[in-house]
Structure formats: C-alpha cells, structure tokens
UniProtKB/TrEMBL annotation:
Source species: Winogradskyella ouciana
One annotated GO biological process: DNA-templated transcription initiation
Example GO molecular function: sigma factor activity
Domain RNA polymerase sigma factor 70 region 4 type: 125-174
Assigned protein family: Belongs to the sigma-70 factor family. ECF subfamily.
Residue intervals of the RNA polymerase sigma-70 region domain: 27-89
Record keyword Transcription regulation present: yes
Name of the protein: Sigma-70 family RNA polymerase sigma factor
Length: 181
C-alpha cells in the first residue's frame, strides 16, 4: 500500500489504512518526541496523542504537504501545549516573594474522597466490561497490571504497534461509553 492510497482510505475510515499509517510513521514521530522530551514515557504518550488527533482530523490533511511533516507538526504542537500547561502550573504554585511562607497542604484523601474514588472506580470497571474482551484485556494489562507495551506485546503475542492501536481504540471506545452515561 502506498502512502497516498492509505491516506485516501483512512479518510474513508479504513482501519487497515490507519494501521498502515501508524506502522509507517510511528518510529519517526516517536524519535522526534524522544529527542524533544528526552523521556520515553512522555515521547510515547505524545506520539499516541499525535496519531489519535491526526486520525480524528485526517479529513483536514492537505495533500500539498508530506504526511510525515503534518504528523510532526501535530506532535510538536501537542508537546508545546503540554509544556505551556506545565509552566502555567509551576508559575501558579511557586511564589516569588520571599516574605511569604509556603503553606503545606494536606493532600491525603478525606473519607468522602475515598468513597467517591471507590464509586468512580466501580463505575469505570462497569464501563470497561462493556468493551469487547480483547479491548478489556489490553486496558487491564496496561493500566491495572501496569505492563509496558513490550510486555503486553509478548503476553498477547502481537506486534507492539498492534497493541498500541488496540489500546488507542479501547480508550476511544471507553471514552464514548463514559460520555454516554
């Protein structure tokens, strides 16, 4: 499959085309982010967000430009947004004036917080059970057993990129289920 054909099919929601584009450009986007962030987890998260956003907005892709350039631009903008958000958080929490004493906030959850967390977790688990079993499995392995993509790939005997796509789809489907309820 050629890139232009894959893009055309992806615009028609062809999952095989999405997989082809993800497999073709994953390493480029990931390497770009790894250089920028110098952190494997951040690079991986931003790369996943990049493909998620790109696939959601694939209709806006202008074929006058290279697809890789478009992906890298999306990736760069996501990273810039995250850095801005982190800087805003740091500025809001730091105090420049030496006359102020830092207040130590008790972050430990109250009994009410614990009950709410338990209720939210129970609801999340019910929503996860609405997914197809193979999506439930990747969410369980990634978020509850905290396995890496490589470990999940070995456990499921599937290529890493398939695991990433499956997890991305599972998260999208779960988000849709959560927003409906």
């Amino acid at each position: 499959m050629e890139i232009k054909d894959a893009i055309k099919k992806a615009k028609e929601n062809d999952q095989i085309a999405f997989n082809f584009l993800l497999d073709t450009f994953w390493n480029d986007v990931y390497a770009f982010q790894l250089k920028r962030t110098q952190n494997e987890n951040d690079a991986e998260d931003i790369t996943i967000q990049t493909f998620s956003k790109a696939f959601d907005k694939i209709d806006t892709y202008n074929e006058d430009y290279k697809f890789k350039t478009w992906l890298i631009t999306i990736s760069k903008n996501i990273h810039i947004d995250l850095v801005r958000k982190q800087n805003r958080t740091i500025r809001n929490t730091s105090k420049d004036d030496e006359d102020h004493y830092l207040e130590i906030i008790d972050d430990s959850p109250t009994p009410e917080d614990k009950i709410i967390t338990e209720q939210n977790l129970a609801k999340l688990l019910r929503d996860i059970k609405k997914l197809k079993p193979h999506y439930q499995e990747v969410i369980n392995l990634r978020y509850f057993q905290e396995l890496s993509y490589k470990e999940i790939s070995e456990d499921l005997n599937e290529p890493i990129n398939n695991v990433k796509v499956k997890l991305l789809r599972a998260k999208k489907l779960l988000a849709a289920i959560i927003t409906k309820s």
